[in-house]
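Quick note —
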Amino acid sequence: MDLSPYPEEVLRRGRGIRLLILDVDGVLTDGRLYFDAKGETLKVFHVRDGHGIKMAQRGGMEVALVSGRRSDAAFHRARELGVTRFYEGVRDKAAILEELLAALNLTPPQVAAVGDELVDLPLFHRVGLGVAVADAVPEVRAAAHWVTTLPGGQGAVREVCDLLLKAQGRWEELVRPWQEPAAG
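Predicted structure written out below.
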């Protein structure tokens, strides 16, 4: 397993992560909003991000989606991925962090947060690993412990999940079923 793309400090922080908090718009999506003729919001999610989330869950991590907007599409995507900790219409993401810490009996260093916008900065100042997507605003990239190579909605979340699983030594075990030849 090649860990060379990751700085040692990021790997050290990633080893203890038990909760991954993801923003939705601009992180799980590319940040664009599509409206149909009835005014319903449509969003596009990347399948690789979804697979990364499922792998993180299999690796023992809890995943939470925290969004400032209300969205049926995001709710359905969370449900499809088995993410039960879904928060929408959130104005104070730090308050949700406190709620999650208490509910899961965790400390801030055991939490990673992925964001792209100024409203995500309060999380970055509290968690063990703050990650900005590649196309995040400059202030978020500057505050992040790590910046993905891919932009939001285009596989950035998968990058984060892979990083965490590799840092925790779970990667090989989780990918083995796809690497082994089928019995025949």
